[in-house]
Amino acid sequence: MRDFYRKMTYGAFSALMLFAFTSATFAFGGMGGATAPKADDPMDKLEPTAPVAVVNDVAITKADFDRELSAYLVNLQASTGGQHAGNIAPNDQIKSDVIKTLIEKELIYQEGVKNPPADLDAKVEENYNAVLARMPSEDDFKKALEKDNLTEESLHELLKRSVILNNYIENVLGKDVEISEEEVKTFYDDNPQYFDVPEKVHASHILIAPEGEGDEAKAAAKKKAEGLREQIVGGADFAETAKENSTCPSAPNGGDLGTFERGKMVPEFEEAAFALKPGEVSDVVETKFGYHIIKAQEVTEAGKMPMEDVHDKIAAFLRRNAINEKLGVKIEELRAAGSVEIVTPHLKK
């Protein structure tokens, strides 16, 4: 199910759609200098106000590029589950992708500004206040503005563009996009891998680790564990017994390990835990950590999430895909009808 949510969040969007919906978050206070620049890159020599592309006589500046690149890298990390965390040295392909995204955003913005939302100013102010709320202090806010080559006025302009982009994509291109119940059901039936629920158990345990090396220490630990199990079977409270005797860090919580799937515990422990019914206590189980007494609190059988539980998320996912297709067609139309020039020669692709 986690894979479906990740696919829902990122898979339905082109670069433009993803940035349009996240620009209010990432257009300001992004990663800043977290990337390592390529040696002798012509882009590094450009001033913040220098154009990197021109769309219908409107310049896209180096400062615009830097902010968009930061957003790109943040989203790259998120969309890959953090696999690309750390310092990323963007290559020419990444930079070309960012310039392409900026061009597409500008084309859509120029179209969207013809029919802005009625509450444009209110939405811009709402987003601006959200940015302020993220800042620890006014001084931090001013430093962030300076780092991103922004003023309060230019920040307002960025947020205005974000609102206009969102409005055009959602309320103009997406105005007549509706997803039928049949489409939702088909996706649900055709993609069971997203909705499978694995077998899980919520368990507590008591661990008695040997005090020292050798067979004698192991025998003593096992004997103690067997004695504690007899007390529990005889009516002693499991959680209290764990608090008083377990050598596991979970002892203060009564030995509660929470809920886990198969593959999360050592094999001997897993086999014993998943063989239990709710409320049952295992025999003494030996692992490399010592001797365990396991109690199953709750068992969830493997199954499939009911469609009603994921219906709305599937419909939203499919709607985003449909809007994305319309967006791609619209961008091609606007690009063919307009004038687009990439000023940085080595990134003309």
Average pLDDT value?
Answer: 86
Instruction: Give the DSSP E fraction (strand runs of 2 or more residues).
Output: 5-15%
CATH class of the largest domain: Mainly Alpha
Secondary-structure element string = HHEEHHHHHHEEHHEHEEEHE
Number of strands: 9
Largest sheet: 4 strands, antiparallel
- Low-confidence region ranges: 5-38
User: What would you give as the CATH superfamily of the largest domain?
Assistant: Porin chaperone SurA, peptide-binding domain
Total count of domains:
2
What structural category do the secondary elements indicate? alpha+beta
Which key features would you list for this structure?
Triger factor/SurA peptide-binding fold, 2 domains, 9 strands, elongated, Chitinase A, domain 3, 349 residues, single chain, four-stranded antiparallel sheet, three-stranded antiparallel sheet, 53% helix
How would you describe this structure to a colleague?
The relative contact order is 0.15. The chain is about 55% helix and about 15% strand. Helix 2 packs across helix 4 (about 90-110). The longest helix is centred in the last third of the chain and has 31 residues, at about 305-335. The protein contains twelve helices and nine strands. The protein has helices at about 1-10, 15-25, 60-80, 90-110, 120-135, 140-145, 150-175, 180-190, 215-235, 240-245, 265-275, 305-335; strands at about 50-55, 60, 195, 200-210, 255-260, 285, 290-300, 305, 340. The chain folds into two domains: about 1-190 and about 305-345, Triger factor/SurA peptide-binding fold; about 200-300, Chitinase A, domain 3.
